[in-house]
């Protein structure tokens, strides 16, 4: 079917973009909006410091772990049908989370949101690709889609702060319901599903191995806070998780329709791009989680003020991405951008280790945000563009989904690990400085800051190590005209 006929069949393609953009906004919004509400939710539901990270990781783990399977399901059931299913499921899970009477219900709701987001995200991207077939219009459409992805995080920060402050933290979840209902009207204009000649096979064993392995590792990191890193239970979980992931890799070698063809990740350019994204998310999630608690609990900021205080980081991300990386990407090898970006992010998190309870926003939080944000912009734009570098046409979808998976999984494991580091350091500080066994409010506050500093220190080391690894592995040279055009294609993921 030629381009003219395709567009004749769907003259309302810009309306399609509007509904798909709403769905994308909802997905991106939910990454940051809950971070701002987390201190209030923790107090309201009596969530422990060791368990608080699960409110973040339940979403990102389910999203990242099921994303590849979600793309296959969209191929199997049809993109339009999967889009609607994802929207309605996300709305239902959000309503459940908003009404959650306890931590367990909230956790289940967040996992449900992630699972339905894993259906929604690949279906939305596929529908956009099918709708816009003319090159100039497609570039414009994906530019708008990318702007929603980049700006949605900032909207989530401010919206989450306003809803928490003036209504209740629960509205940070309820707000998804009207957005999903509005986006569901896209059913009327979205391209109709075409029944494929042969249904794609579903790699259910691969999905189970990947998800259970990742959950085991994340749970081990969270249990280390209470059990200790030398606990047999923690060791056992880590060993089981590693064995399951090894089993996943072995299964992908022999599966008839592998969830993740190994040729996608064994290419050095693509593999190191996925690695850069995964490890970069350790720094980004650390900044959002611990600076949120620092500003609200230690400094006494309101939820809205906290959201606004994060905006400079978003501006820095956009400056690093659009102001520098996008301009240099066609001219220089990718590691020339990724390695300095990771080193900047490492320097920013190292700066954050110096923040004390009495440090002003301008002297502590703001410089750390700007340095980390600018570095992340350089890393993410370059890595996302090279996520499909040199990939076969048949693997383009799974290669794009893999970078999203790397983003969410890196954030999940990083959040669990760093939260354990923070809570353990805080507990040790309070034990050492409590007078007569009863810590004063000042000791508790200083203990929190000490825990955050320890977590930032570990994040800084991880980011520096990532820079070294990527510098060694990413062997792609200066792009040619054709290669740079190929690398600058469809945006594969969002920065949340």
Automatic annotation (TrEMBL):
Q: Name one GO molecular function term.
A: transmembrane transporter activity
Gene3D superfamilies registered for this protein in UniProt: Multidrug resistance protein D (1.20.1720.10)
Q: How does it sit in the membrane?
A: Multi-pass membrane protein
Q: Which residues form the Major facilitator superfamily (MFS) profile domain?
A: 16-478
Q: Does the keyword Lyase apply?
A: no
Its main subcellular localisation, reduced to a broad class, is membrane
Higher taxonomy: Bacteria, Bacillati, Actinomycetota, Actinomycetes, Kitasatosporales
**Pfam short name (any one):** MFS_1
- Under what name is this protein listed? MFS transporter
The transmembrane segments are 14-34, 54-71, 83-101, 107-130, 142-163, 169-190, 202-220, 232-251, 272-295, 307-329, 336-355, 361-382, 454-474
């Amino acid at each position: 079917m030629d381009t003219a006929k395709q567009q004749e069949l769907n003259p309302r393609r810009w309306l399609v973009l509007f509904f798909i953009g709403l769905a994308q906004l909802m997905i991106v919004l939910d990454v940051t909006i809950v971070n701002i509400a987390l201190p209030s939710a923790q107090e309201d539901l009596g969530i422990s410091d060791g368990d608080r990270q699960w409110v973040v990781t339940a979403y990102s783990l389910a999203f990242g772990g099921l994303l590849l399977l979600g793309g296959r399901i969209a191929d199997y059931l049809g993109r339009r049908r999967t889009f609607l299913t994802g929207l309605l499921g996300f709305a239902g899970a959000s309503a459940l989370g908003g009404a959650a009477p306890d931590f367990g219900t909230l956790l289940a709701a967040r996992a449900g949101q992630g699972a339905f987001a894993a259906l929604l995200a690949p279906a939305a991207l596929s529908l956009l690709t099918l709708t816009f077939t003319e090159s100039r219009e497609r570039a414009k459409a994906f530019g708008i889609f990318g702007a929603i992805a980049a700006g949605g995080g900032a909207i989530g920060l401010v919206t989450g702060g306003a809803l928490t402050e003036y209504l209740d933290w629960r509205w940070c979840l309820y707000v998804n319901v009207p957005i999903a209902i509005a986006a569901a009207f896209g059913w009327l204009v979205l391209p109709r599903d075409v029944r494929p000649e042969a249904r794609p096979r579903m790699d259910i064993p691969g999905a189970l191995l990947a998800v259970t392995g990742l959950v085991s590792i994340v749970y081990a990191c969270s249990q280390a806070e209470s059990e200790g890193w030398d606990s047999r239970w923690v060791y056992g979980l880590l060993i089981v998780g590693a064995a399951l992931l090894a089993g996943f890799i072995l299964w992908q070698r022999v599966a008839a329709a592998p969830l993740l063809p190994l040729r996608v990740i064994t290419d050095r350019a693509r593999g190191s791009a996925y690695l850069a994204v995964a490890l970069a998310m350790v720094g980004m999630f650390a900044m959002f989680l611990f600076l949120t608690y620092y500003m609200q609990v230690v400094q006494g900021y309101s939820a809205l003020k906290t959201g606004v205080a994060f905006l400079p980081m978003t501006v820095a991300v956009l400056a690093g991405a659009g102001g520098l990386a996008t301009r240099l990407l066609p001219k220089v090898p990718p590691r020339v951008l990724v390695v300095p970006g990771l080193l900047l992010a490492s320097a920013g998190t190292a700066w954050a280790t110096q923040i004390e309870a009495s440090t002003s926003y301008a002297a502590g939080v703001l410089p750390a945000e700007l340095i980390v944000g600018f570095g992340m912009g350089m890393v993410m734009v370059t890595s996302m563009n090279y996520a499909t570098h040199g990939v076969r046409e048949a693997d383009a979808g799974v290669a794009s989904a893999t970078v999203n998976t790397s983003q969410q999984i890196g954030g999940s494991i990083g959040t669990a690990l760093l939260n354990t580091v923070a809570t353990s350091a805080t507990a040790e500080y309070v034990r050492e400085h409590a007078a007569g066994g009863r810590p004063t409010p000042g000791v508790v506050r200083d203990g929190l800051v000490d825990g955050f500093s320890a977590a930032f220190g570990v994040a800084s080391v991880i980011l520096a190590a990532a820079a070294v690894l990527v510098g060694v592995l990413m062997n792609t040279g200066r792009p040619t005209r054709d290669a740079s055009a190929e690398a600058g294609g469809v945006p594969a993921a969002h920065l949340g």
